[in-house]
Design goal:
The chain is mostly helical. It is built from two helices and no strands. The model has no long low-confidence stretch (mean pLDDT about 90).
Protein backbone atom coordinates (compact mmCIF):
# COMPACT_ATOMS: atom_id res chain seq x y z
CA UNK A 1 0.00 0.00 0.00
CA UNK A 2 1.25 3.47 -0.88
CA UNK A 3 2.51 5.37 2.17
CA UNK A 4 0.28 8.38 1.36
CA UNK A 5 -2.80 6.19 1.16
CA UNK A 6 -1.78 4.33 4.30
CA UNK A 7 -1.43 7.62 6.20
CA UNK A 8 -4.84 8.85 4.97
CA UNK A 9 -6.46 5.52 5.84
CA UNK A 10 -5.02 5.64 9.36
CA UNK A 11 -6.09 9.27 9.84
CA UNK A 12 -9.58 8.48 8.61
CA UNK A 13 -9.85 5.52 10.99
CA UNK A 14 -8.54 7.42 14.03
CA UNK A 15 -10.64 10.52 13.40
CA UNK A 16 -13.71 8.38 12.70
CA UNK A 17 -13.22 6.46 15.94
CA UNK A 18 -12.88 9.70 17.91
CA UNK A 19 -15.94 11.16 16.20
CA UNK A 20 -18.01 8.08 17.02
CA UNK A 21 -16.85 8.09 20.65
CA UNK A 22 -17.66 11.76 21.19
CA UNK A 23 -21.03 11.48 19.40
CA UNK A 24 -22.00 8.48 21.53
CA UNK A 25 -21.15 10.36 24.71
CA UNK A 26 -23.23 13.32 23.57
CA UNK A 27 -26.18 11.12 22.60
CA UNK A 28 -26.11 9.46 26.02
CA UNK A 29 -26.32 12.82 27.77
CA UNK A 30 -22.81 12.94 29.19
CA UNK A 31 -22.64 16.73 28.96
CA UNK A 32 -22.66 18.23 32.46
CA UNK A 33 -24.30 21.49 31.41
CA UNK A 34 -24.99 23.65 28.38
CA UNK A 35 -21.43 24.95 28.20
CA UNK A 36 -20.12 21.37 28.20
CA UNK A 37 -22.68 20.45 25.53
CA UNK A 38 -21.50 23.32 23.31
CA UNK A 39 -17.88 22.29 23.85
CA UNK A 40 -18.66 18.70 22.85
CA UNK A 41 -20.57 19.81 19.76
CA UNK A 42 -17.54 21.93 18.84
CA UNK A 43 -15.31 18.88 19.17
CA UNK A 44 -17.59 16.98 16.79
CA UNK A 45 -17.45 19.81 14.26
CA UNK A 46 -13.68 19.96 14.55
CA UNK A 47 -13.35 16.23 13.94
CA UNK A 48 -15.68 16.39 10.91
CA UNK A 49 -13.69 19.33 9.56
CA UNK A 50 -10.45 17.39 10.06
CA UNK A 51 -11.88 14.46 8.07
CA UNK A 52 -12.79 16.78 5.20
CA UNK A 53 -9.36 18.40 5.24
CA UNK A 54 -7.64 15.00 5.27
CA UNK A 55 -9.79 13.84 2.37
CA UNK A 56 -9.03 16.93 0.30
CA UNK A 57 -5.31 16.65 1.03
CA UNK A 58 -5.36 12.99 0.02
CA UNK A 59 -7.08 13.86 -3.27
CA UNK A 60 -4.38 16.43 -4.03
CA UNK A 61 -1.60 13.96 -3.19
CA UNK A 62 -3.00 11.24 -5.44
CA UNK A 63 -3.71 13.74 -8.21
CA UNK A 64 -7.49 13.91 -8.26
CA UNK A 65 -8.66 17.22 -9.71
CA UNK A 66 -10.95 19.44 -7.62
CA UNK A 67 -13.41 20.98 -10.08
CA UNK A 68 -14.50 23.65 -7.57
CA UNK A 69 -11.06 25.30 -7.59
Amino acid sequence: MNLDLQLYTELERELGDALEKHATELIHGRAADYADYRYRVGQLKGLRDALVIASEANKRVIGVEDKDR
